[in-house]
Write a structure and sequence with these properties.
about 180 residues; mainly alpha; Arp2/3 complex 21 kDa subunit ARPC3; 6 helices
């Protein structure tokens, strides 16, 4: 039991660190925060698939808090929650979908769509003033935050390929 807890903490720390480093490699950045990164969500998603939903949520929330510390763009406490611990924390729900590769794909899509929706809500409430004159704030926020959907296009296949390899190579962790 103690070794399992230690393994959880060490793997979690490594995956959070790896995600953090990858998040600093930006392929495209936006002016009010947000960027397309070098697959920064993949280590957190892999951790969630390996350790299940509870472990995934824990690591993903910690990663979100860390993102809010390292690269903050904060205008209000609720916006901070929506854009950091909640948005990134939603990546952890992938762990509830770790039964097989097909279900993992579904869970990964749900997790990234959850992150996208959290950012969209934050954008509508806190960044509507950035919308061009006459543009609906919801439409503006959906378009602005589409960087998450761009990341989904390459995060999903990378996560599934790596999860397929890792789940065969490493011993199974029972949730």
């Amino acid at each position: 039991m103690r070794n399992r807890r230690l393994l959880f903490l060490v793997e979690g720390a490594v995956m959070i660190a790896l995600s953090t480093v990858l998040s600093m490699v930006k392929l495209w950045s936006l002016p009010q925060g947000g960027s397309v990164t070098a697959a920064s969500m993949v280590p957190i998603l892999i951790f969630a698939l390996r350790w299940g939903g509870k472990g995934g949520l824990f690591a993903a929330v910690v990663y979100g808090i860390l993102q809010g510390i390292i690269e903050p763009f904060i205008v209000h406490p609720i916006q901070y929650l929506l854009d950091y611990p909640i948005a990134f924390g939603l990546l952890g729900i992938t762990g509830f979908f770790n039964k097989n590769l097909r279900i993992a794909a579904f869970g990964t899509v749900i997790a990234l769509l959850g992150r996208y929706l959290s950012h969209v809500l934050s954008g509508v409430v806190f960044f509507a003033s950035y919308a061009p004159q006459g543009m609906n704030p919801l439409v503006y926020s959906m378009v602005y935050n589409s960087f998450v959907l761009v990341e989904l296009l390459y995060t999903l296949p990378l996560t599934l390929i790596l999860w397929n390899v890792i789940s065969k190579a490493l011993p199974d962790i029972k949730n």
